[in-house]
Amino acid sequence: MIRQMTTQDVEAVHRIEVAAFPTPWTLDSFYYEINENQFAHYLVYEDHTGIIGFCGIWLVIDAAQITNVAVLEQARGLGIGEALMREAMRVAREANMDTMSLEVRVTNTVAQNLYRKLGFKNGGIRKGYYTDNGEDALVMWVNLNE
Ligand SMILES: CC(C)(COP(=O)(O)OP(=O)(O)OC[C@H]1O[C@@H](n2cnc3c(N)ncnc32)[C@H](O)[C@@H]1OP(=O)(O)O)[C@@H](O)C(=O)NCCC(=O)NCCS
Question: φ, ψ for residue 53 (rounded to 5)?
Answer without folding.
Answer: -165, 160
